[in-house]
Task: structure prediction
Amino acid sequence: MDPDVERLIRDAMRERSISFKEALNEAARTGLQGKERKVRNRFNQQTFRMGEGQMFRWDKALAVAEAMEDEELNRKLSLRK
Result:
């Protein structure tokens, strides 16, 4: 038995005032029967329509952002003259 598992069993023994055998059996039953398993909700990403006839090419967004950044850097550099 791994040390971390033994520690968990011994913690359960102390909390519930039960024997090692009882704690081990209870842990095995819970794990094998699937009690206390948390059911996770499936993630659902919400999407929204952005309208018809978009004139902006979203696949070129990084290029546009880079051009805007270059313009801003040029503006700041021209102010230092």
Notes: Residues 18 and 42 are 38 Å apart (CA to CA).
